[in-house]
Amino acid sequence: MDAARAVELDGWTVGIADVASLGVIQFSCTILLTIVALWHADTSSSRRKSRKAHFSAPSSIRRKIMSSALSKELRGKHNTRSLPIRKDDEVRIVRGKYKGREGKVTQVYRKKWVIHVDRVQRDKSNGATAPIGIHPSNVVITTIKLDKDRRAILDRKDKKSDTAKDADVEMVD
């Protein structure tokens, strides 16, 4: 018998020790799962690599990262906490110098990781106005611009939360 083996399951590398040689009768499932979670092949816990992946992310990934929380009313209605921000959503700024201001998103500037909100701007020395970039994590979406694709995303997220609630109910004796 081998003293130790390694098995790969869906990208997870699992080390399996020879139970008989260790004299161990039973492994705790939670300990095994904790050990397995540390060995995922595609995940690095290096700060340097995580930052590089974040700041060099393509636009499709930045869309997902640039999500904003939903207001309490929308959260209850759609059964989801956050959504990727898009142009024409109405937002309320909840952090920073412009806290409390509300407006419509005029631009999502993925390259700079900011959104521009109408009526949040400053005057330049030549008399022109320039929009001020707000990070999406500092706003709450108050009105969602719905189209068929966004509706499909909300429906999919709602189904996911419903199945999670059903699973909890089934486990009760």
From TrEMBL:
GO cellular component: large ribosomal subunit
Listed InterPro entries: KOW, Rib_uL2_dom2, Ribosomal_uL24_CS, Ribosomal_uL24_euk/arc, Ribosomal_uL24_KOW, Translation_prot_SH3-like_sf
Ranges where the KOW domain occurs: 84-111
One Pfam family cited in the UniProt record for this chain: KOW
Record-level GO BP terms: translation
TM stretches of this protein: 20-41
Record SUPFAM superfamilies: Translation proteins SH3-like domain
PROSITE patterns recorded: RIBOSOMAL_L24
Annotated SMART domains: KOW (SM00739)
Residue span of region Disordered: 154-173
Gene Ontology terms for molecular function: RNA binding; structural constituent of ribosome
Keywords carried by this UniProt record: Membrane, Ribonucleoprotein, Ribosomal protein, Transmembrane, Transmembrane helix
Domain of life (superkingdom): Eukaryota
Record family assignment: Belongs to the universal ribosomal protein uL24 family.
Protein name (record): KOW domain-containing protein
Organism, scientific name: Antrodiella citrinella
